[in-house]
Structures are given as C-alpha cells and as structure tokens.
Amino acid sequence: HMMLLLLAPMGFGLAAITPPLMHLLFGPKWDEAVPVMRILCIYMVLGAISHWPGVVYKAVGRPGILNAISATKLAMLLPTLWLGAMWGGIEGVAWGQLIVKSVGIGIDMIIIARFINISVLQNLRSIAPPMLAALVMAWGMRGILLLDPTLTSPTVLALAAATGAALYLGLIWMLDGQALRALWSLARSIIRRERPAPSIST
Hints:
The protein is mainly alpha-helical. It is built from 6 helices and no strands. The chain has helices at about 1-25, 35-45, 50-60, 65-110, 120-145, 155-195.
C-alpha cells in the first residue's frame, strides 16, 4: 500500500508525459517508442503490488507455492509474448507483459486469501485509492499538455508535472489521508534514524 502511494503517481504520471518527455530528451526519431514506454510505465506500477506474495508464502512455510505460481506465470508469459510479437511487434510484447502481470497479481490475491486474513476485496480496496487518484492525475496532466500540440515546450511539460503533483496530493488526501499521514510518519522516522550520531568531544 505504501509503495503504491509513491509508485502509482510516478508510473501514471510518466505515462501521461511520455510523448513530450521523449521528444525533448531524445528528439523526434524516438517518437515511435512512446507507446511502448507508456505501457512499461504502467507495468512498473503493477510491480509495486506483485512482489509481496512471495514474502507471505515463505512466512507461512509454503515456499513451494511460490515456485508453482512462478512456473504458471512463465507458462502464460511465453505464448503471450509470442502472440504479442506476431500481432503487434514490440508494442504487442509490452502489452503481453502487462496482461500477464495483471493476471498473476489476481492469482496471487486469490491464493493469499487462503493463508492470511486478507481477502481479495480487501486487497482491491487497499489499492483503489492510489490507483484512482493516479488515473485522475494522469488525465489532468494530459489536459495541460493539450496547451502545446507540438509537445516541445519545456514550460508546458513542467506545468503539467506540477499540476499532476498537486492534483494527486489533493486527491489522495481526500481518498486515503490516513495512509498518507502514515507514509509521512514513516519517512520522518527513517530520516531521524539515518542522522549521524553527534560527535563527543574529549
């Protein structure tokens, strides 16, 4: 949940500004990579909620489940990537990765519910606020980018990023303020813990 609070706006935000960002950083010759980069940005978000099941399987003494699920995901991935490459080239491969990742997360949620007292519905409720806020934020950023049809203005790009940050913080405060406060408290505790100990003069 905490990771998603951070990675959801990063992933969806990057997906929203990928066209002007790629154009400004690498020039128009890389414009064809924009669709793939957008898909991979969303894939990064899903990565934030796909690693924890393995920790649970080990904690409950069932690491074999992790191996079985990994084999199942691989069995789904190989034909999906092949079909994606055949039908859509590199973009199809990216979509295949995203689809298999999404299905894998669903499988993990169902199996996890049998071992710990967290149902699929509870998991979905947990990830809904940051995902929803990030989606709305991304649409808001895309609206700002319409001010520059050429997608070449650094000013408009900066304005879109700033608008997105403000929009996400406002939305997540309304939808999940408690989690936001907990994340802030966690960050402060980490910072305090990493401060060097005061020197002692002799």
